[in-house]
Request: fold
Amino acid sequence: MDFPFDMNALFPERITVLDNSLSAGRRAHGRPDPLLQISTVIDELGKASAKAQQLPAPITSAAKLQATRHHLYLLKDGEQNGGRGVIVGFLKVGYKKLFLLDQRGAHLETEPLCVLDFYVTETLQRHGYGLQLFDFMLKHKRVEPEQMAYDRPSPKFLSFLEKHYDLKNSVPQVNNFVVFSGFFPSRSAVQLRKVPPKKPEGEIKPYSLMEREVVREEQRALPWPFVRPAGPPLSPPLLPSSPQSRCLSVGSSPSRALLRPAVAPGSPSHQLNDSCRARRTSSLNRSRLSFH
Ligand SMILES: CC(=O)SCCNC(=O)CCNC(=O)[C@H](O)C(C)(C)COP(=O)(O)OP(=O)(O)OC[C@H]1O[C@@H](n2cnc3c(N)ncnc32)[C@H](O)[C@@H]1OP(=O)(O)O
Reply:
């Protein structure tokens, strides 16, 4: 991806780590970083990533990065574009409070580092750039791939994780985060706490909101399970098979959702949870067949 300005001047390093300051590190001649140009790069990458993943709206933008404590790793090839450099791709990570199910189905409160967005320019995919970005991030964050959670990984990303890090056995969840079998034993007691049996309402957030779900939530007036008033939907309804389709339970905002008690097998809620789990699993299976 090339831009009408010099990437090498903007991003001195091959891989730049950006946080909410959007500072690329160098302050040429005492002047601040050209924030506008950096913002343009992030916004365009976010749009390209959303398009590649068929998301309704970007989950990465300069404004979103400024508003969070996420880290964005940006990879350039400094020799392309007549020596001005091109942006190859990016990887965005951040810590999230998540309620996850371990292998035995017990709810656990966790706060892992999550991969939230990941994109390499179409023409440069399968050249090892994604691996360079990911390896850099692992070292920078001092984390192992199996200790991380993955926010609705795409088929390509699942293939990437299996190929490079041998991550293939995911532990079923009721939200759309994916964790692999090494996740639970490898976490320290501090990072992984078993959920106490009872907590005051509102304190526990059962299913954490995904970045990409927030995009949809921002367009909604009322959270599930409240029924929307009559009138046209604010965003198009999702087909069960569409890439944006979600388990309804994930749509509950963490700031609004309450921990629901266990439900009896056969009850409507139980069936809903089952159908959500089945849908995610089937979507993972389906996605493995649909690489192109
Ligand atoms: C939580 C999330 O962020 S989910 C969103 C992930 N992002 C996307 O799906 C956007 C589109 N895809 C991409 O941008 C890239 O393919 C990435 C970021 C997933 C991987 O980056 P790359 O530079 O292509 O990865 P890299 O070259 O290091 O590794 C290649 C491996 O990735 C996987 N992969 C990459 N592209 C593809 C593809 N088109 N089809 C299937 N697998 C692919 C394969 O395992 C591939 O190995 P192979 O070529 O031997 O089959």
Summary: Residues 93 and 115 are 5 Å apart (CA to CA).
